[in-house]
Write a structure and sequence with these properties.
The chain is of the alpha+beta class and 409 residues long. It has eleven helices and ten strands. Strands 1, 2, 3, 4, 5, 6, 7, 8, 9 and 10 form a ten-stranded mixed β-sheet that branches. The protein starts with a helix and ends in a 10-residue tail after the last helix.
Length: 409
């Protein structure tokens, strides 16, 4: 009866004959022409033939990598989209310095900053100030047919261009006394449009405009006439945006502002970081957990799958060693199998991540995804590193295989 080892040996010889001519056995030098394989039998080709023999297991490994990559890619895109959404409207406001109440919050969606009524006039008197614009605003709940939403109401002046929405999608950009302009995401959530009314406290406001760029995920920006805020008791500005002249630096102006009672100046970068701080504190730990779990699960599945395949074909690896195939070629073939599964999984995961992010933005516009090129490369590089570490599991198993195993019947 023919032993299992002899059957494996015949299969391997058949594979070699199909791929390239068998070298002359009488010339020992020709059997060691290439350290990467026997008679030009490449490592990648050997790995690919192994993958083709058991496609089901490698498809499972590719699926695990693709799922992990897709999850991390989407989570990273949502996190970056959240950070971008938090500062999109504040970033549209002019000024190099933002002045808030000393000890108050620099986050617009907190709205705990209340400057004195004459704060802007005081700042304009400081040497080196080019312009100073007041931002009037307050947090409020809007209601429509039992649905509620948290918004930051921005009070617009009749003639001033400061504080206007980032984009206007429909209607008019400047509301009258009993009117309001809402963001397109808020209109989608409340299922309202131009001509509908929203209740703010005990007042009904008519929607006359739909804006864009005011979605901050945790809330949205809406726009009313400043007089409506005055009637609501908001007569003091929340912030003052300052543009400095060429004769003074930003740091020097901040130092002068900080000397004024009840005022604290900050750069635009500091203001942006403050508005993103809430998202970083709440969302970043969750993103880290998701990334850690995805990497652990994906890497474990890939490692166990490759290890199982390696153990099932250990006689073939022993035969390769017995026939004189260099150890680094055998180990390279085992490692390349993991590389094939990881590479295919990364490509599939990135494509699925892009597609699913588009679906999410259509189904739920509030969740904005931002996927820059560096995020794509970072996720791909991380997946490749994790896959490489997982591929070391079968490589170590192959390294311990005894060539004499093939002769045991």
């Amino acid at each position: 009866m023919v032993g299992e080892g002899q059957v494996r040996e015949r299969e391997l010889h058949a594979d070699v004959e199909d791929s390239s001519p068998v070298p002359d056995r009488e010339d020992p030098r020709r059997t060691r022409v290439a350290p990467a394989g026997i008679a030009g039998f490449p490592v990648l080709e050997l790995a690919w033939q192994t993958v083709r023999r058991q496609p089901g297991r490698y498809v499972a490994a590719m699926g695990a990598v693709a799922a992990a990559v897709m999850l991390v890619f989407i989570a990273g895109g949502l996190y970056l989209g959240l950070l971008e959404a938090m500062i999109r409207y504040p970033r549209s406001l002019p000024g190099e310095i933002v002045v808030a109440e000393a000890g108050g919050s620099a986050t617009l969606l907190h709205s705990s900053s209340h400057l004195d009524r004459d704060a802007a006039a005081t700042i304009r008197k400081l040497p080196g100030v080019a312009t100073a614009y007041e931002l009037f605003g307050r947090l409020a709940w809007l209601e429509h047919d039992g649905r509620q939403a948290l918004v930051y109401l921005v009070g617009l002046g009749r003639q001033s261009m400061f504080g206007l929405p980032v984009h206007l999608r429909a209607g008019k950009i400047r509301p009258e006394f009993d009117e309001i302009v809402v963001d397109e995401v808020l209109a989608h959530d409340l299922r309202v449009g131009i001509g509908d009314t929203l209740r703010v406290g005990v007042v009904d406001l008519k929607i006359v405009g739909i804006s864009g760029g005011g979605n901050a995920v945790l809330g949205t920006y809406a726009f009313v006439q400043r007089g409506a805020l005055v009637l609501g008791g908001i007569q003091e500005p929340s912030y003052v945006f300052v543009q400095v002249g060429p004769e003074v630096t930003v740091d020097e102006m901040i130092a002068r502002i900080d000397q004024e009672d009840g005022m604290h100046g900050m750069t635009r970068d500091q203001f942006r970081a403050s508005n993103q701080a809430l998202a970083r504190q709440i969302v970043l730990p969750l993103i880290a957990i998701v990334v850690g779990i995805a990497c652990a699960v994906g890497g474990t599945i890939v490692g166990l799958t490759l290890y199982t395949v390696t153990m099932e074909r250990r006689e073939e690896y022993g035969l390769m060693k017995a026939l004189g195939l260099p150890d680094r070629a055998v180990l390279g073939a085992a490692f390349a199998q993991g590389g094939i599964a990881t590479s295919a999984g990364v490509v599939i995961g990135l494509v699925l991540g892009w597609g699913l992010s588009l679906v999410v933005s259509i189904v739920e516009p509030r969740f904005v995804t931002t996927m820059p090129t560096w995020l794509t490369f970072a996720v791909a590089a991380g997946a490749i590193v994790a896959g490489s570490l997982a591929s070391m599991i079968p490589v170590r198993a192959v390294a311990r295989i005894d060539p004499a195993l093939v002769f045991r019947v």
